[in-house]
Amino acid sequence: MGKSQQGSQDHGQAVTRFADQRDVVFSKLEQAADAAAAGPPDHVENDEDVDTAESASPGEPAAPNMEIFAYNDLLHYIASTRRSNTDDDTRRRNAALAAMLSERGCDRELLRLPDDWERRLDELQADFPHAGAFFDTIRDSCALAAQDDGVVHLPHLNAIGPPGSGKSALAPLFEGIVGGGFVRVSMSAVESGAMLGGSQETWANSKPGLVFTTLTEGRYGNPIFLLDELDKSSTDGRFDPMGPLYTLLEPTQAKHFVDLSVPMLPLDTSRVVWIATSNDPELIPTPIRQRMVEIEIPLPTLAQSLAIMRSVMRWLQRDNPRLRRFALDGSAEQALLGLAPRQMRKLIVMGCGRAARTGRTVVTMVDIPHAAVQTRRIGF
Q1: Last residue of some domain: 234, 265, 296?
Q2: Distance of CA 282 to CAs 121, 166, 170, Å?
Q3: In angstroms, rounded to a whole number, what is the distance separating the alpha carbons of residues 20 and 124?
C-alpha cells in the first residue's frame, strides 16, 4: 500500500472511531449542559490513543496525522453552545459549527512527499529557470523529510522580486508535494485580521477566518497558504490584516492559535505551510520579516522568458480544455517574449480567441493585441 493510501485509510479509521464515540459523549454532554455550573467535561479516554500505542513499533516513524484541536476542548465547546445565553442566530451558528466539528473530528492527515518528488521539482523548475534559489530551499526541506516520515517542514518563505518575476505563480505549484490543499490570500485586498483570524464572537455576523475553516473543513493539517503581495497589506493600526500572523508564524504560539470567532477551541496551526510574496520587504513589519526566510526572485533573461511563456501555455491548456487545440507559432512567441506571466496569460487567451474567429488553430503575431504588447516588458 502506498503512503498516500495508508494515510487516507488511517484518516478514515480515525473519523469512524470519533463518530462511534460521539453518541455516548453527547448523552454525557446533555447531562452536563443541564447543570448551570457545569465546567469542562472530564477527560474521555480515546480508544485511538490505546490503539496507536499498541500498534506502533519501536523505531518506526509516527503515523502522518495530527490533532488540530484537543478532543476535550471540542467537548467543552459543544457543551458551551448548549448552555449559551446568546441570541437565536448566534446559537444556530454555533450549533451548526459544533455539528460540523464533531462530524469531522480532531485528526487531520499530513500530506507526505510523493515518491517522484525530485522529478516533479525538476520539471517545475524547468518552467521557472530563474527561481533556482527558491527551488533549492524547497529541495533541502524535501530531502530532510524523505529521510524521516515524509512530511515536509518548510520554513516560512517570502519570495521577493519585482513585478513580472513570476513569484506569485510559484506557490500553487507545490500543492501535493509539500502541502495538502492551497489557499491564496491577496493581502492587498484584505482590510482586517478577520480574514485570517476570524471576527469577534460577539458580533452578529461573526464567522471563523480562513485558517480555521481550511483546517477544520479540509482533509489535511498542512495546507499551503499564499500571502500574495504581503508588502501591500493595509497599515491601518485599528484593523491590522497582519495581526494574526504574529501568532501564526511563531512555531510555539501557532500550536495554540485562537480564532476570535471560536475562542474556546484553540487550533494547532503549526504545520501550515506559509509562502508570501512581496516587491518591497521594507514595507513589512520587522517582526513578520524575522519570522520568514527571504528569497530573491530575479527577473528572467530572454531565454528564461521563453521557457516561462511555454509553461504558461501548458498550464492554460491544462486548466482550459478549449485551448488544447491551439499552438503558438514563432511570431506569436516573439510578440509575447519578455512580458510578465500574468500578462502572457491574458494575451494568449485573447490570441486563441482571435485565431478561432477565422477558423485557425495556430496563433500568430497578428492575433496578439498590439497595444497590449507595447506595455511594459520585464527587464528588457
Answers
A1: 296
A2: 30, 20, 22
A3: 44
Q: How many alpha carbons lie under 13 Å from residue 75 in its C-beta half-sphere?
A: 26
Question: Domain for residue 378, yes or no?
Answer: no
Would you say residue 30 has pLDDT above 50? Answer: no
Residues 146 and 82 in one domain: no
Q: What is the DSSP letter of 308?
A: H
- Co-location of 177 and 49 in the same domain: no
pLDDT(81) > 80 = no
C-alpha grid cell for residue 217?
A: 473543513
Domain match, 171 and 224 both:
yes
At 202, is the pLDDT very low, low, confident or very high (cuts 50, 70, 90)?
low
**Dihedral, CA of residue 27, residue 33, residue 37 and residue 38, to nearest 10:** 40
356-362 LR contacts (CB < 8 Å, sep 24+): 356/326, 361/325, 361/326, 361/327, 362/326, 362/327, 362/328, 362/329
Range of the domain at 324: 302-373
**Exposed/middle/buried for residue 176 (C-beta within 10 Å: 0-12, 13-18, 19+):** middle
End-to-end CA distance of the chain: 51
Residue at 380 is within a domain:
no
Reduced to 3 states (helix: H, G, I; strand: E, B; else coil), residue 309 is helix
* pLDDT number for residue 205: 64
Tell me the C-alpha distance between 222 and 217, whole Å.
Answer: 13
Q: How far apart, in Å, are the Cα atoms of 341 and each of 124, 224, 332?
A: 15, 21, 15
pLDDT in tens, 339-353: 888 889 999 999 999
